[in-house]
């Protein structure tokens, strides 16, 4: 492939990645909103729903932690990973920290 061909291919790839990133960012408010509701349900300690909510919360945070860096949002991925670890440790220790809802809500601010 020629240098011009390489540049064109690179430009197409960057355009495609930007489109994926834009879709990811566009859905971030809805995803974090759902995670906030799961955190509230898990924090309430109302079995059996709280166990299911906590598992779904962990899965959602894990998904963001893995997907965000893939689309160039490393800070968001790192924050989601830290929250995932916090929720996992809270599960072992018997409860979620009171600030978890605000911490999750703040994920939506990590769009760059």
Keywords, separated by commas or semicolons:
single chain; 112 residues; mainly alpha; Four Helix Bundle (Hemerythrin (Met), subunit A); 79% helix; 0% strand; HPt domain-containing protein
Give a structural overview.
By secondary structure, the protein is mostly helical. The protein has a single domain (3-109), classed as Four Helix Bundle (Hemerythrin (Met), subunit A) (Up-down Bundle), CATH 1.20.120. It is built from five helices and no strands. The chain has helices spanning 3-26, 28-43, 49-70, 74-93, 100-105. Helix 2 packs antiparallel against helix 3 and helix 3 runs antiparallel to helix 4. The longest helix is centred in the first third of the chain and has 24 residues, at 3-26. The two termini are 33 Å apart. The model has no long low-confidence stretch (mean pLDDT 87).
| Helix residue percentage | over 70%
CATH class designation: Mainly Alpha
- Going by CATH, the architecture would be Up-down Bundle
Flag low-confidence runs. none
The CATH topology corresponds to Four Helix Bundle (Hemerythrin (Met), subunit A)
- The fraction of residues assigned to DSSP E strands is under 5%
Number of helices: 5
């Amino acid at each position: 492939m020629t240098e011009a061909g390489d540049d064109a291919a690179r430009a197409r790839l960057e355009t495609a990645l930007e489109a994926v990133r834009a879709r990811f960012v566009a859905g971030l408010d809805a995803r974090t909103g759902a995670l906030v509701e799961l955190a509230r349900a898990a924090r309430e300690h109302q079995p059996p729903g709280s166990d299911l909510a906590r598992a779904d919360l962990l899965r959602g945070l894990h998904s963001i932690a893995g997907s965000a860096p893939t689309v160039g949002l490393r800070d968001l991925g790192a924050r989601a990973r830290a929250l995932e670890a916090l929720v996992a440790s809270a599960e072992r220790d018997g409860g979620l920290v009171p600030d978890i809802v605000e911490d999750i809500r703040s994920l939506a601010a990590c769009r760059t």
